[in-house]
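This entry is set out below.
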Amino acid sequence: MPKIIDHDQRRREIVAVAKKLIIQGGFEAATMRSIVTEAGFANGALKRYFPSKDSIVAATFQSVLAEMNERTGEHDPSLDPKEALRHDIEATLPLDTYRIDSARVLLALWEHSVANEDLASLYRDHLREWRRRLAERIAEARGKGEPADASAVTTLAGEVIGMSIGANVTCVMFPDGALIPEHRAYVDRLMTNIVG
């Protein structure tokens, strides 16, 4: 009886290997050859799942962004709006080893996306959706009856996104988590600024 192969699982395994290699050695470390070797595939087997390095990069980028979206969406529905906003902000920050590693992957992929319009478009769409969801959370948490597209709300959403991206960039230089207390303190100040 032939062995049944879960092709989606194989794709996830390949993406996990690509992430691991990027974390260890940057974007250049994730070559087709190194991915094949690390994943334990025969030469040529990788192309069945991903025809090029760009396709692996795109899948890896999507995977990291999807994880962030999952973290922001997985909160207790009984949280009050302020607690839900704090949860969503903290979910995008490098507050543990796993998210610091994810930031390393994102940083490498951001750089690559500058020269790849498909990846750049993917990330721009992610930023737009992130800003939209965040503005909704902020408007709800402020409790002033403001619409999510009010100038004050969208400005605050932009500040949160800028802080999060900055935290993800700087944490790459401090992979030991030394900046985690600083990031947590900034969330406290940000929450005070947003909701008083």
About this structure: Helices lie at 7-25, 32-39, 53-73, 81-91, 97-113, 117-142, 151-171, 180-195. The chain has a mean pLDDT of 88. The longest helix spans residues 117-142.
